[in-house]
Each structure stands twice: as structure tokens, then as C-alpha cells.
Design brief:
It contains 13 helices and no strands. The protein is mainly alpha-helical.
Length: 314
């Protein structure tokens, strides 16, 4: 009986609390991609025409901005626009702030922020002039800066309660990982911590905020290729090739465990090293991101108002 209970407990401890969120997020991305691909596939031979040729296309009455499909795409863009602003609003509305996890909201905020400019571009049939054009390019600036913000957010470690970790807690966790990594090195006989080469604290202190952001990105960008090289050296060519050139895990459990520990330790070391810079850039990012968001909102409302008042037929 006790063995069964112990087995049940062990199974329960392996449950991934983020699995449901990742599944929902994947479905959201797939749905967004499907919508975009369907619209693009249907309108490809129309959107590829010049402005002078489009009025002669049989799809012009429905795909132009005021057409039966074009106007619905505009409505969909407005709906997505309102959904995007739920994320900043939840920080001000107590009852909304209690719904779900802030990071989960941010993930879906990114999905909507990525999809909205594409839908609006289809609505405008890729003609960006006057107020509508200004609104679109403001939205593009919001979207691009949103990707940067999401990356910066991921660089600030957070505890299970979503409260930001103190630097002391991060250093304690790093020390524990280093001890575990040392055990793995003794077992495997190679230095997996050499996967990553981080700059020194003095070097980071001397760099500008932009250079620090670029350095963080390059470290993360090189990570999969460095891991691939380690898998090739330690597992051999055959397992490396079967693991898609080392980009996914091999069948060597000890090697993969050592790599996972090294990844956690290196990632945490990078977070500690760049923590001050990350917080500075994140504060500056808010100064840039919010004005573009407000400018887009104002321009979009003006565009809708003018279109309704003037009864444009484009």
C-alpha cells in the first residue's frame, strides 16, 4: 500500500503546471496563423495587383477596405485591439488582476499584438496612407517593441508566487546549481559549464544599455548551437545526427541531465550579471512602448470616426 502511495506521489510531483498554458498558447498561435494563411491564400491574386488594376478584379468589391470582407477584417482588427488593451487594464482593475497569471496574460498579449497588424494590413489591402497609415505604423512600432519587452520580462527571474526574486535568492540558487553541476562533471568527466562564456561584471558595467541588450540576445542566440556542439563531442556523430544535429535531446540521460543543469546555471548567472541593466532597459522600454500604444489608439479611433462620418468607399 505504501509503495503504491509513494508511486502516486512521485507521479503527481512530475505534473507540469505550465503544460496547460503551453497547450493553450500553441493553439492560439495556430489559430492566428490559420486565419492569416486563409486570408492570404484567398486574396493573394488580389493583393498582388497594382492600385490601378485592383478595381477590375472580381474580388475588389469584397476585399477593398469597405468591401464585405474588408470591413469585417477591420472589425476583427478593432476587436483584437480592445483585447490587447486588457493586459495593461488588468494592472489597474483589481478584479481583472486576480484572473490568471500575469505572465500568461503577457503571452497571449504578444499573440494578439502580433496578429493585429497583419489583420489590419489585410483590411487596408496594404494601402497605408493618411491617418490609417499613421495608425498602422504606430501599431507596428508597438508590436516590435512588444517583442523586446517580452524578452526583457523573461530576463527578470520570478519565484513560484510571481514575486520578483531578490539578488540574494538568485545567488543562493546559483550556488546550489553550481554544486549539482560539479557532481555531474565528476560523473561525466567533462566540463559542461564551458557551454557558455559570460562577460565579467566589470565589462557589463562599462557597456551601454543597448550593448547590454544585444549581448544578452547573442548569448541566448548562441546557446542551442553550443549545446549541439557538446552533444556531438560527448555523444558521438550517430546520436548527434539522430537528435537533429544536436538541437534536441539525445538518448544519453546522464549527458542530458548535465546539460539541463548547465543551462539553468548559465541562465541564472546571466540573469544575475545583467539584472541591473535589464531593469534599466525595462524601465526605458515602458517610456517608449506606452506613447506608441496611446498614439495608435488615438489614431485608430480617429480613422474609424472619419470613415464612419465621411462614409468612405475605397
Amino acid at each position: 500500500m505504501s509503495a503504491t502511495a509513494g508511486l502516486g506521489t512521485a507521479v503527481l510531483t512530475r505534473v507540469d503546471p505550465e503544460k496547460g498554458h503551453r497547450t493553450r498558447l500553441l493553439l492560439a498561435w495556430l489559430l492566428a496563423a490559420a486565419v492569416v494563411l486563409v486570408i492570404a491564400g484567398y486574396g493573394l491574386n488580389y493583393y498582388g495587383l497594382s492600385a490601378a488594376q485592383r478595381p477590375f478584379s472580381p474580388k475588389h468589391p469584397i476585399l477593398r477596405p469597405s468591401g464585405s470582407i474588408g470591413i469585417k477584417l477591420g472589425m476583427l482588427g478593432v476587436l483584437i485591439f480592445f483585447l490587447i488593451y486588457l493586459y495593461p487594464l488588468r494592472m489597474k482593475w483589481g478584479w481583472l488582476g486576480k484572473q490568471g497569471n500575469s505572465r500568461h496574460w503577457l503571452d497571449f498579449h504578444v499573440v494578439l499584438g502580433t496578429t493585429a497588424p497583419i489583420i489590419i494590413a489585410f483590411h487596408a489591402s496594404f494601402k497605408f496612407g493618411n491617418i490609417a497609415g499613421m495608425a498602422f505604423w504606430s501599431m507596428m512600432a508597438v508590436t516590435l517593441s512588444g517583442f523586446v519587452g517580452r524578452y526583457l520580462y523573461s530576463q527578470i527571474p520570478r519565484g513560484l508566487s510571481a514575486a520578483q526574486l531578490s539578488k540574494k535568492e538568485m545567488e543562493d540558487r546559483e550556488e546550489a546549481l553550481q554544486k549539482e553541476l560539479a557532481e555531474q562533471k565528476a560523473t561525466l568527466g567533462f566540463c559542461v559549464e564551458a557551454l557558455y562564456h559570460l562577460p565579467t561584471a566589470d565589462e557589463v558595467a562599462k557597456t551601454t544599455m543597448f550593448a547590454s541588450l544585444l549581448s544578452m540576445f547573442l548569448i541566448d542566440f548562441k546557446r542551442p548551437y553550443q549545446v549541439s556542439r557538446v552533444r556531438l563531442q560527448e555523444a558521438g556523430f550517430g546520436p548527434w545526427l539522430r537528435s537533429f544535429c544536436g538541437l534536441v535531446a539525445t538518448g544519453d540521460l546522464k549527458l542530458e541531465r548535465a546539460i539541463r543543469i548547465a543551462q539553468k546555471q548559465a541562465s541564472l548567472s546571466k540573469h544575475i550579471l545583467f539584472l541591473t541593466r535589464t531593469e534599466q532597459v525595462f524601465r526605458l522600454w515602458h517610456v517608449v512602448h506606452r506613447p506608441f500604444s496611446y498614439a495608435f489608439a488615438i489614431l485608430a479611433i480617429l480613422h474609424i470616426g472619419v470613415a464612419l462620418f465621411m462614409g468612405y468607399r475605397l
